[in-house]
């Protein structure tokens, strides 16, 4: 049975993490696409939850303090995050306006890629985005680091629980949308909206850099 302090720390981790990951980001959109295609969805969810848990734990263990004491490193992480989002948006718009039509076949799947290919792409999207480190390591990690003793690790478990909840919901939503994405136009609409959202996020991140 959790103590009051442990329960409070778990709830804090769950709430903080959920408030940050429930947004339209590169990783979320990738998982949504995989869920729509029915391609290695469980592995994608597992990767996302594990990577979130590890990054938050690293932040709680002290990396957030190190990064917080280095404004120059934080500056370049923020700039890198803006550039990553811009590049992701450009790739999405290239698919929307220039790539061949995409669609699901009658079984609800496309030509399946290997597990290694899918997870490698997801790993790049997760770990090559510098803004991810600002969210998980610096922001969530610094909040978790303020917990006392073992409560820090209940905070990490809470954050991982939030990540698991969100990505399971996202995967379920993707499966329900398979009928919609049997139409190639739906993929172009998704990529157009994805690109626009990435540009907005890139601008928002860059504006934060200008105001720092």
TrEMBL record:
Main location: membrane
Species in which this protein is naturally found: Diaphorobacter ruginosibacter
Coiled coil: none
Subcellular location: Cell membrane
The protein's name in its UniProt record: Amino acid transporter
Highest taxon of the lineage: Bacteria
Bilayer-spanning residue ranges: 12-32, 44-67, 73-93, 114-133, 153-174, 186-206
InterPro entries: LeuE-type
Any one GO CC term of the record: plasma membrane
Entry keywords, A to Z: Cell membrane, Membrane, Transmembrane, Transmembrane helix
Membrane topology: Multi-pass membrane protein
Molecular function terms, GO-annotated: amino acid transmembrane transporter activity
């Amino acid at each position: 049975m959790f103590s009051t302090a442990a329960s409070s720390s778990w709830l804090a981790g769950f709430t903080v993490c959920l408030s940050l990951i429930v947004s339209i980001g590169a990783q979320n959109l990738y998982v949504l696409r995989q869920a729509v295609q029915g391609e290695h969805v469980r592995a994608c969810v597992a990767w996302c939850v594990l990577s979130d848990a590890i990054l938050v734990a690293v932040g709680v263990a002290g990396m957030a303090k190190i990064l917080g004491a280095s404004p120059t490193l934080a500056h370049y992480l923020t700039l890198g995050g803006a550039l990553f989002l811009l590049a992701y948006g450009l790739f999405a718009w290239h698919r929307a306006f220039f790539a061949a039509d995409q669609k699901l076949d009658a079984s609800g799947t496309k030509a399946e890629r290997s597990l290694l290919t899918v997870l490698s792409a997801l790993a790049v999207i997760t770990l090559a985005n510098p803004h991810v480190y600002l969210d998980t390591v610096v922001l969530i990690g610094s909040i978790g680091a303020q917990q006392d003793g073992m409560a820090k690790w209940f905070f990490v478990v809470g954050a991982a629980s939030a990540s698991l909840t969100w990505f399971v919901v996202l995967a379920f939503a993707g499966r329900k949308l398979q009928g919609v994405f049997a139409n190639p136009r739906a993929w172009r609409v998704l990529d157009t909206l994805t690109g626009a959202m990435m540009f907005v996020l890139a601008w928002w991140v860059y504006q934060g850099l200008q105001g720092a």
